[in-house]
Amino acid sequence: MTAVDERRMTQFFEGFEPPEGAKAELLRGVLVMMSSPDIVHNWIVADVQDQIPRRWARLQTQDVDIVGEASEPVPDLVVLPKDSLPSSGRLMPCQLITMVLEVVSKSSVHQDYVVKRSIYAAGGIPTYLVIDPIMAQCVLLTKPTGQGEDADYHAQEIIKFGEPVPMDDLGLELDTSEFGTLPDVRPHRYP
C-alpha cells in the first residue's frame, strides 16, 4: 500500500461510524469490524482495570496511533503513566503507552494473537497482555523487537487462569482467579 493509499484509508477511517453494536479498527490498512463484546469479556476488562493502581491512566477502547503503520487498533485497555496522558485527542501515541490488553473473543482470535501482536510490537509497546477466556489463559508478551510485519515480542509467558500474572512494568501481580471463561467455544491453536 502506498503512502497516499494509507493516508486516504486513515482519513476514511477517522470519519467512519460503525453500525450500532459494532466496533471497528484499522489493522494494516484493513478495516476490521466486530460485534459488541460478551459479558465475560467486559467483566475481565473491568477486573483488570480495577487491579491497576490509580497512578496509571487506564483507558478502555482508546484508539492507538502506531508510528509507521497503517493501523489504528483499539485495545480493550490502554495503560500509561498519568503524567504522560495528553489533554485531548482521538489517537493515543504508541510511544506513551506502557501496556495494552486484548481479551480474546470467538471472532478475534487471529487478530489478537497474530496481527495485533505484530502491530503492537512494531509500535514498541513494552507489554502486550492477551487474556483468553476460550483457553482460560493469559499470554504476557514483553520485549518488543523489529519493524513492520516482522515485529514481534521476544519474551512470551503463558499463565493459566488462577495463577498470578507478573506485570513488572506496572509493579503488580495480576490476580486472574475470578476471570470467567466462554462456554461451548471450540478451542484454538494459538499462541
Walk me through the topology:
Elements: H1 3-15, E1 22-27, E2 30-35, H2 39-51, E3 56-59, E4 63-65, E5 77-81, E6 91-93, E7 99-103, H3 109-122, E8 127-132, E9 137-145, E10 152-160, E11 165-167, E12 172-174
Parallel strand pairs: 4-6, 7-8
Antiparallel strand pairs: 1-2, 3-5, 5-7, 8-9, 9-10, 11-12
Organism: Streptomyces eurythermus
GO molecular function, one term: endonuclease activity
Domain Putative restriction endonuclease: 18-167
Task: For this entry, give a set of tags.
alpha+beta; six-stranded mixed β-sheet; 3 helices; globular; tt1808, chain A; 191 residues
What's the short version?
It is built from three helices and twelve strands.
Q: Which structural class do the helices and strands define?
A: alpha+beta
CATH topological fold name? tt1808, chain A
Euclidean distance between termini CA atoms: 28 Å
- Supply the CATH architecture: Alpha-Beta Complex
Shape: globular
Count structural domains: 1
Keywords: Endonuclease, Hydrolase, Nuclease
Protein name: Uma2 family endonuclease
Domain Putative restriction endonuclease: 18-167
Organism: Streptomyces eurythermus
